[in-house]
């Protein structure tokens, strides 16, 4: 294999891995999927939701799960588009630029949906629960913050 071909392949793999890392980080918070799981566990196990709150939170979670699944599909499509553009251009050309922009757009939409989901869940909480939830969200997003 020619050196140029090898370097191009390495660059493509590194770039794709970097995009995947950014996507995962932005989508699932700074702390990764564990933070989101811990936040949901906190909501359900620590906040002592009443029956009405449980029903409302479940509905919110079902809506979010459907939207998240759709956005994950869009992200797979965006990544496939990026891979095709990179394969065709072998450099940072206009098609790669457009594909990167589209990938970032989908990642931003996922982050926005995640935040709207959090605020929707918060809206069903009593003030004391909301304060505890806010602290848990802050810890999940910025575990080093004081």
Name the structural class.
mainly alpha
Overall shape = elongated
Profile the largest sheet.
Answer: none
Using only CA atoms, what is the Rg? 19 Å
Tell me the number of helical segments per DSSP (H or I, 4 or more residues long).
5
Q: Which band does the percent of strand residues land in?
A: under 5%
Low-confidence stretches: 28-34
Mean pLDDT: 80
Number of strands: 0
> How many structural domains are formed by the residues?
1
- What percent of the residues sit in helical stretches (DSSP H or I)? over 70%
Topology-level CATH name:
Four Helix Bundle (Hemerythrin (Met), subunit A)
- CA-CA gap between termini: 52 Å
CATH architecture: Up-down Bundle
Query: What sequence of helices (H) and strands (E) makes up the elements?
Result: HHHHH
Organism: Novosphingobium sediminis
Protein name: Heavy metal resistance protein
Pfam families: Metal_resist (PF13801)
InterPro entries: Metal_resist
Please tag this protein with its features.
mainly alpha, 5 helices, Heavy metal resistance protein, Metal_resist
Give structural notes.
With 146 residues, the chain is mainly α. It has a single domain (3-141), classed as Four Helix Bundle (Hemerythrin (Met), subunit A) (Up-down Bundle). Helix content is 84%, strand content 0%. The protein contains five helices and no strands. The protein has helices at residues 3-27, 33-46, 51-89, 94-122, 127-141. Helix 1 runs parallel beside helix 4 (94-122), helix 2 packs antiparallel against helix 5 (127-141) and helix 3 runs antiparallel to helix 4 (94-122). The chain is elongated, with a radius of gyration of 19 Å. Mean pLDDT is 80; it is low at 28-34.
């Amino acid at each position: 294999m020619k050196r140029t071909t090898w370097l191009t392949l390495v660059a493509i793999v590194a770039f794709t891995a970097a995009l995947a890392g950014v996507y995962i980080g932005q989508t699932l918070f700074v702390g990764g999927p564990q933070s989101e799981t811990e936040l949901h566990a906190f909501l359900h196990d620590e906040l002592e939701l009443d029956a009405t709150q449980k029903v409302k939170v479940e509905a919110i979670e079902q809506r979010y799960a459907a939207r998240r699944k759709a956005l994950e599909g869009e992200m797979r499509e965006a990544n496939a588009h990026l891979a095709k553009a990179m394969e065709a251009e072998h450099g940072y050309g206009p098609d790669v630029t457009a594909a990167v922009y589209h990938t970032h757009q989908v990642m931003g939409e996922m982050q926005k949906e995640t935040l709207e989901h959090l605020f929707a869940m918060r809206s069903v909480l009593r003030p004391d629960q909301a304060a505890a939830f806010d602290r848990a969200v802050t810890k999940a997003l910025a575990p080093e913050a004081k």
